[in-house]
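Morning. Coffee machine broken again, so started the prediction first thing and wrote up yesterday's gels while waiting. Chain of 130 residues, entered below exactly as on the submission form.
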Amino acid sequence: MLKSEGYKTYQNSKVMTASPAELTLMLYDGAIKFANIALSAIENNDIEKAHNNIRKADAIIEELQCTLNHKYPVADDFDKVYSYLRDRLMWANIKKDKDILNECLEHMHTMRDTWVQVMKNNKAGGTVVA
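Came back before lunch.
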């Protein structure tokens, strides 16, 4: 029990001290984590666990979508991708379809990897715009 409390404190500290770019990365990681858990649950025919974790992944994508800064034109592109992902997650959840969920995971990984590159470029003197 004590070990669990220490981990929670560490995680809370990690979030509270993270930059906006690092928080975005954490959100991508969380969406990927929950989609992977849902995929495993579908494979194990655990419908409730699959449903709950797809909903968690969707909530994270919704949060990313809601926090877009539309003063930058690229935000409109992200908005379309997030809308598409949310639609596909809904269908993956309705059908408990591994193929649709794998498609979503592929997109999430691509977006996460792109975000990591944006963060690296930002450290080298660029600007994060989304």
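Helices lie at 2-16, 20-43, 47-66, 74-95, 98-123. Going to sketch it on the whiteboard this afternoon.
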